[in-house]
């Protein structure tokens, strides 16, 4: 932003915050007034996936709408908390917490560390997250189990690599991926696997989740052995 450019106001955002408050206030919408954090979870998940679809389609008008839907969910949760006993926070608290978090996670921008590449930044984040969450004893801690199975598998494998653990890649799987050159072809192969599983009465999602749980147990076992070995003095 040029020093001669006036800072942009956010009247639209302020109007939306006020509108959410009115809907949930006495005399507002009965449905909105009855909602809880828990009852809203399904809508948050749905809205996030609709946003993903809009991004993948490249439709900018749809992105504006779906980003608005996700933003609405954030504001709804914040307003609900602001008016619930035992939950003394509002949207400003959420925003300030996020600002502080991002400042601490970007010492190369707001501090004196230097980062030349995106990989340097990722390394900063890993170090900072470890300092912020010392209670986490495994690289798998914090991975949300509710992710879709494929996304969860990719996330877990990426985390496991940091512990020096990799899942067994069968010759069949390695050969399959070696035959595809792009994500479109890979998607077709994955779809074929799901179709074949369905034809045999097998649940591909459940099967993959089961395999992930087994792999997670292997990762944690390796970590436990490493900690036990580090504690030995003989």
Automatic annotation (TrEMBL):
Domain NTP pyrophosphohydrolase MazG-like: residue ranges: 35-110
Gene3D superfamilies named in the record: MazG-like (1.10.287.1080)
GO MF: nucleoside triphosphate diphosphatase activity
InterPro entries: MazG-like_dom (IPR004518), NTP-PPase_MazG-like_N (IPR048015), NTP_PyrPHydrolase_MazG (IPR011551)
Range of residues in the leader sequence: none
Cited CDD domains: NTP-PPase_MazG_Nterm (cd11528)
Record-linked SUPFAM superfamilies: all-alpha NTP pyrophosphatases (SSF101386)
Gene Ontology process terms (BP): dATP catabolic process; dGTP catabolic process; dTTP catabolic process; dUTP catabolic process; response to stress; TTP catabolic process; UTP catabolic process
Annotated protein name in UniProt: MazG family protein
């Amino acid at each position: 932003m040029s020093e001669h450019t006036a800072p942009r106001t956010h009247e639209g955002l302020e109007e939306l915050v006020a509108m959410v408050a009115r809907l949930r206030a006495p005399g507002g919408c009965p449905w909105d007034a009855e909602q809880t954090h828990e009852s809203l979870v399904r809508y948050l998940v749905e809205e996030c996936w609709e946003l993903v679809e809009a991004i993948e389609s490249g439709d900018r008008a749809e992105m504006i709408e779906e980003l608005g839907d996700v933003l609405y969910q954030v504001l709804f949760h914040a307003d609900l908390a602001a008016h619930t006993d035992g939950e003394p926070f509002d949207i400003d608290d959420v925003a300030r917490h996020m600002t502080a978090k991002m400042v601490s996670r970007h010492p190369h921008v707001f501090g004196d560390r230097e980062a030349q590449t995106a990989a340097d930044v990722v390394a900063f984040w890993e170090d900072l997250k470890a300092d912020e969450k010392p209670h986490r004893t495994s690289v798998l801690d914090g991975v949300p189990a509710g992710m879709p199975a494929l996304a969860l598998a990719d996330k877990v494998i990426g985390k496991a690599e940091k512990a020096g653990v990799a899942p067994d890649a069968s010759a069949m799987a390695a050969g399959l991926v070696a035959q595809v050159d792009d994500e479109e072809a890979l998607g077709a192969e994955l779809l074929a696997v799901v179709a074949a599983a369905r034809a045999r009465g097998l649940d591909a999602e459940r099967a993959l989740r089961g395999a992930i749980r087994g792999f997670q147990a292997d990762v944690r076992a390796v970590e436990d052995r490493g900690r036990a070995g580090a504690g030995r003095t003989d």
